[in-house]
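Progress report, Aim 2. The chain analyzed during this reporting quarter is listed below.
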Amino acid sequence: MSLPLTGIKVLDLTRVLAGPLSAQMLADLGADVIKIERPGGGDDSRIFGPPYLVDPDGKANNNNSFYLCANRNKRSVAVDIAKPEGQEIVRELAKSADIMMENFKVGDLKRYGLDYESIKKINPGIIYCSVTGYGQTGPYRARPGYDAIFQAAGGLMSVTGHPDGEPGAGPMKVGPSIADVMTGMNASIGILSALFHRKANGGVGQHVDVCLMDTVIASLSHYAQIYLVNGETPPRRGTAGNGGVPARVFTCADQDIMLVVGNDSQFEKCCGVLGHPELAKDPRFVKNNDRVVHRNELMKILEDLFIQKPAKYWLDELERVGVPAGPINDFAQVFADEQVKHRGMEVKTKHPFREDLSLIRNALTFSETPITEYRAPPLLGQNTEEVLKVNLGYDSAKLEELRKKGIIQQAG
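Predicted structure tokens for the chain:
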């Protein structure tokens, strides 16, 4: 059975997280993704620290969790693009590619003749996606940066963290590299949109410019819109929401739960579960806008009620009446959860270092073109010989010459 992107060829020059995640999405959807890596070191993420898979021979290796999370279903070709022979290999591969992706600093690839304008000359239909920190234009375009920089500069940290006046108050970074993850999603959307335009609308290839700064600002959505409407930045509220009330973490007799009451009907049901239906008729709390104004008074009342019984009791009762609430799970609890197991979010694949390597499945589910294959993220240069022989017609002598010069590397 074909996948949605079967037959699409992707040349992936991205590194670290945002770009590789986007290329991985395309690979999951059936595209043939050739990942270009630097001989010796490979993708920068390979040195981002433990945990690493255990090499069967006990050797140090570069297959760590950071790299593994973003590179399944790809083929790795180790080529030194700083040398003319390496640049020529990439250009030759680009001639037959539908998509080329890169996340080098603005202008870096022009030195090698691998920028969009250069590639466009040899492949006018190419969809060329550049993923950067600040974009291809503007006064900051040449600045480097990583996820946390953009969480800070884009405003996300200003609205994340404990409220002023509470212990630990101050701006806080979101745990995972969320700016990278969202930028990877935007890159995939941009690439697929350009691909559709080229195919369905008789369009041509084009340059897709995606950056972390733009993505963070756009992702702030209703929070940023509040500022654009009234000129005020929403305050940090810790685990509390900025709209519906109550919506925050509550401490129960044994552990915490997350409660989100989204409308007045749910609030009335919640009050009934708590054994105090009169709260829903209190003039301070009848409507959501009232509860926003009297937020602190309501929170104190609810805190004193939730602490009286264990989390499971409250979760069961809230579910019974249709009020959204949930446990605060660690990863062990997440992957042991019956819903998560039913949805198959943990998948197994065979890796050279491990027979049953666990990966996270793609979050998309299709009725007609299901994603069923999860090939392990490749070793550095694992597919160099295969790709150069089959795709470019290089013979063994040519490959040996390139290896001796340090232009290419083959795993093992």
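The first strand starts at residue 9 and ends at 13. The chain has two domains: 9-218+342-409, 247-251+256-327. These observations will guide the mutagenesis work planned for the next reporting period.
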